[in-house]
From TrEMBL:
Pfam families: PD40 (PF07676). The keyword Membrane does not apply. This is Uncharacterized protein. PROSITE patterns: TAT. It comes from Pelomonas margarita. Keywords: Signal. Residues 1-26 form the signal peptide. Gene3D superfamilies: TolB, C-terminal domain (2.120.10.30).
Amino acid sequence: MDRRKFLGGASATALALGHAPLSALAQSAPAARQRPLLLNRIGPSASRLFIANADGTNERKLVDSGTLDYNASFSPDGQWIVFTSERDGLGNSNLYRCRTDGSAVERLTDGPAVEDAAVFSPDGRKLAFVSTRDTLLANIWVMDLQSRELQNLTAALPAKADSPNGFFRPSWSPDGQWLAFSSDRHTDWKGHHKGAGWEHTQELSIYVIRADGTGLRKVSSRKDYCQGSPKWSADGKRIVFYETLAEYTYWVLRPDLLLKIDAQIVSVDVASGARTEHTSGPGFKISPQYLGNDEIVYRRKGGPEDGLYSTQAGKAPIKLAGLRTPTWSPDGKQVVYEKFTWRGWQQNQALYSWDATREYRYTDVWPAFSKDGWMVLTAKGEDGSVDVMKADGSERRRVYDVTKQSGLDPTLVKRGLAGAFFPVWSPDGEWIVFGVGQWFTQRGKGRAKLMRVKRDGSGLEQLTDDSIFNAGFPSYSADGREVVFRIANEDANSASLGGLAVLDLATRKVRRITSGYDNMPMWSPDGSRIMFNRGVRLPGSIWSNFDLYTVKPDGSDLQRLTSHPASDGHAVWTSDGKQILYNSGQAGYRDEACHYDQTFQPYGQLFVMNADGSGKRQITDNIWEDSTPQYVPPGAR
């Protein structure tokens, strides 16, 4: 079966999103091979599955495909384990099962959609799992393991327009009649830190639905909270889940913030809704599961207390270094889990391609091409320096070394909050302009300036001075005489970045062209327009949505290209100026945010649209964040 055509025709839900499903893109693409797509993906480089006794002894490797294997769970008889694997291409998650000794590995799904978080029914004949097939949104599906027939249980449920509508982490009731799951349906897109953040928080409630897709009922909800990963008690009377503030669904992704927050393990009576809090105090508690009707086991995530815990008095924590998403066997004697590796990805590493005519490949951030086909990028995977190379990654050399030349705080550089960001070529290919300084959450606290250097690393020159507090994200005009850039104010709580400005390279005069919450400007190849990202104020927030705009170089004729309440950004023009590649959160989360590690925005997928904002379509579909895309232009080798 052709995995790129597995989804079939465009569904009503996908069309409502404003784009066709990935299969339609693949079917309508020309037969001729096209230039590769480069993209940056934030996620682990490898993941292995392990199994151990419940007391932590006899830990052993279960499955290691050499890629990513994760989110495993046991069959009711304890003989099989179902799990997610990206062995068919990095970014393409399919379901597999194996014996508890790691043998008899069998593929259960084969398609370009996200297939994840699978669980066996109590009789072992069916699977419930999360999939984005048909709709490009995360829904709960059920598969008959004998016939392989499929049913989408949640796609037809009423949805709030332009709002999150994902369904996650299904769990079967002991009698097999019901499924519990978490969902962010009927919530709003809300940025972290009182709406100011680029990334969105995730508010989840717990629902149940009959196994035939009828009888949807909300069994637990709490305003401004996230409730996730439900599991049933053995008698089917209670459902246990973790509960934390929705705001913390962003904090938990950040190693520097994780230890400052907490989550508790809570259960509800399914019939009455009466709740019981089983834990208290600090620590982020997640992945709860009943062992019988009374004991609850769970993971405490992060820091020296990371490990497996029990609500049963007298049981000591189980320490298994690096484990994630544990699931216990039905008899409680074993636990299966994965361990991530974060060793970094290689430039031009092959990724799964959702387009049958085009290769997808990994790149470090903000790649840009010169007229003779050389690439420049920020080596964010190292220390935020500026490197140039051929399109295939060969002949790589450093033209600006942050460690030796910037004087920036090494701690901020290591955290990705400082460095040399957003390098772009001059039209003649002789110069590279970039920003050097403190970025993102540091932009109102520390300085940044524009620099340029020749392609051989010589002629380093500072373009802006301290009269502009934080200047960054530059882009050359088509004639090479001017540079547009973003200005940030000296105020960590500022409701305005200061807008966009244009620097005349001959006179060094600066003129403002916008005054909004604007960032990442990019001059069009023909010089007629400047594209940029703008924060848009939503009711009750500071800036909780970001959209793409264009404007003429004199600041006139402002045009809005995107308007979805989820954020859009990381946009670049294609080399002919006819299309725009960008990152968007509009397809929503593919999982509960609290299960992610060391990332920022786990839901971003890549899109492409025409230069006027028409013809939007999604071009990646995975559980990780994809960003900073760039087509390799003609002539680049």
